[in-house]
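I'll show a typical protein example:
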Amino acid sequence: MPWLKLLHIASLVVWCGSLLYLPALLSYTLQLRKDAGFAQGSPPMPRFFYISVATPAALIAIFSGTLLFILHGLVGGWLVLKLGAVVAMVAAHGAYGWLILRLEMGVYKGVKTASILAFLVALAGILCVLGLVLAKPLDWS
């Protein structure tokens, strides 16, 4: 079980870091696309990072976390709140994917604003998960 918990924590760190890095990457890509003029070649970095780093980390974190609470029989009010925070992180993750598609299609309007909103949702979810995990030893039921 310690290996499963280590896998969960490591993948969660990578996923959370990705959720915090993607808005900067999207903003940089948006600036590149606007400055490119007629040469609108799509820089592959946002899609590559999203597909190769962020999404696998998210899937591993969610799968290993699910296994942890199933195998340990963990239930309680804190778990429902934590899963709600994870849903916020998943929503931000999905929003980043949608924004990457918009950039690739050449639709720039609203990308920066939506990226900031997705960042705030991701940050709120990350802080909630962190707070709930640290408060869990208080034995919420």
Observations:
- The chain has one domain: 2-138.
- The helical segments are 2-35, 45-71, 77-105, 111-135.
- The mean pLDDT is 87.
